[in-house]
Design goal:
This protein has 317 residues and is an alpha+beta fold. It is built from 7 helices and 18 strands. The strands form 6 sheets. Strands 1-6-3 form a 3-stranded antiparallel beta sheet. It has a 3-stranded antiparallel beta sheet with strand order 2-5-4. It has a 3-stranded antiparallel beta sheet with strand order 7-12-9. Strand 16 and strand 17 form a beta hairpin. It is flat, with a radius of gyration of 28 Å. The protein binds calcium ion (3 copies).
Length: 317
């Protein structure tokens, strides 16, 4: 039912009803529904403007198929709306030209032969649903170069080397060369290019050596709105070991660590991930925190720092 019709009925009943307590309940219920709808609307978003073509040839083609191919991950699967303007900002509807396509299925196309004058140069953008708007991209990762067997940017390696920085279930993966050319435009064959394994280009599967690629991953809202605490380094290993336990850290930093951390990350003070130091840890989890005991290692523990990943309810807005 349309919102304005709903309000009409509601106001009619306010005037006519004798049972005001019941009506207040109804009004509250409707108000809640309307507010929820408002909030959902607030989370839709527009993509950037795209201008991939100019009208000098057959026409100005800003179609979804081309745009998606040239801009992977930047346009939602099911756009809610499309908007086209000339490059100077005049709405397409005010130019008097005829458009071959102007919808959310095909995108936009202006064909010169269908117009008295050559098509103007148009740009387009798309409105996307909340499920697309509140996702986020990780940083770009480039852990390997192709000089050996190939360029391996796999999730297993990336996760190991960058704990907590990639969501458990990525929605999408994007790979480009280091200079920014989309992987799909390099003409090379990829051994893997998906959200399960990640990315791998094998030299022997290509005529020329693989280019050097970087990758990033799109993550769901549940991952995007979490946050990390500051780094903590309360102890050094000179005594029994390096103790960065949650009990001690909470006591010494009240309010700075959430009650139920999602993840813990430990590195040496110089930034080497704890997992790469070869040392054994007495504790390394979100329940106890972190502890390295000297007597459990061949060499004295290194000096570690820790931080914790916290849920959205803890994170600043
Ligand atoms: Ca254009
Ligand atoms: Ca690489
Ligand atoms: Ca320490």
């Amino acid at each position: 039912m349309r919102t304005d019709r709903l309000l009409q009925i509601l106001f009619f009943h306010i005037h006519c009803s004798c049972n005001s307590a019941k009506m207040i309940k109804v009004i509250l219920a409707v108000w809640t529904i309307l507010m929820t709808k408002e909030c959902r609307c607030a989370n839709i978003c527009w993509t950037q403007w795209f201008d991939r073509d100019d009208p000098s040839g057959v026409g100005d083609f800003e179609t979804l198929q081309n745009l998606r191919q040239e801009n992977p991950g930047k346009i939602c699967d099911a756009p809610i709306a499309i908007q086209a303007t000339t490059l100077s900002g005049t709405p397409a509807s005010q130019t008097g030209q005829t458009f071959h396509n102007y919808d959310t299925t095909v995108g936009f196309a202006c064909v010169n032969s269908e117009n008295k004058q050559m098509c103007l140069d148009y740009q387009v953008r798309f409105q996307c649903p909340p499920s697309f708007c509140s996702v986020c991209w990780t940083q770009w990762f480039d852990r390997d170069d192709p000089s050996g067997v190939g360029d391996f940017e796999t999730l297993q390696n990336l996760r190991q080397e960058n704990p907590g920085k990639i969501c458990d279930v990525p929605i999408a993966i994007q790979a480009t060369t280091l200079s920014g050319t989309p992987a799909s435009q390099t003409g090379q064959t990829f051994h893997n290019y998906d959200t399960t394994v990640g990315f791998a280009c094998v030299n022997s599967e290509n005529k020329q050596m693989c280019l050097d690629y970087q990758v990033r991953f799109q993550c769901p809202p549940s991952f995007c709105s979490v946050c990390w605490t500051q780094w903590f380094d309360r102890d050094d290993p000179s005594g029994v070991g390096d103790f960065e336990t949650l009990q001690n850290l909470r006591q010494e930093n009240p309010g700075k660590i959430c009650d139920a951390p999602i993840a813990i990350q430990a590195t040496t003070l110089s930034g080497t991930p704890a997992s790469q130091t070869g040392q054994t840890f007495h504790n390394y989890d979100t329940t106890v925190g972190f502890a390295c005991v000297n007597s459990e290692n061949k060499q004295m523990c290194l000096d570690y720092q820790v931080r914790f990943q916290c849920p959205p309810s803890f994170c600043p807005a």
